[in-house]
Design goal:
Shape: elongated
Helix content: 10-25%
Order of helices and strands: HEEHEE
Structural class: alpha+beta
Bound molecules: zinc ion
Mean pLDDT: 83
């Protein structure tokens, strides 16, 4: 140990790359990401039985909602079926 050398909390030199690999793996094995409830401002224009809120960032319908048209909460709507998958 050289004098004045810093003590690393990571024992392996390649811990960094391994960490990224680990995080990537996590993302691949967890396709559905729960997020805070949100709904589209355009939901109000849909038939009542089609009005839903989302709570999953990987939901196709939910992802189609532009950030500017998203509102937090449930808006009194049903839970989106796709968000459950
Ligand atoms: Zn959804």
């Amino acid at each position: 140990m050289p004098a004045g050398g810093t003590i690393s909390v990571f024992p392996e030199n390649d811990y960094g790359p391994n960490l990224w690999e680990f995080l990537n793996l996590l993302q691949e094995t967890k396709p559905m990401a729960k997020v805070a409830d949100y709904y589209s401002v355009n939901e109000a224009n849909k038939p009542a039985d089609k009005q839903v809120y989302h709570d999953n960032d990987q939901c196709r319908a939910g992802r189609d909602i532009p950030q500017s048209e998203r509102r937090p909460g449930r808006g009194g709507y049903r839970h989106c079926n796709d968000c459950d998958k």
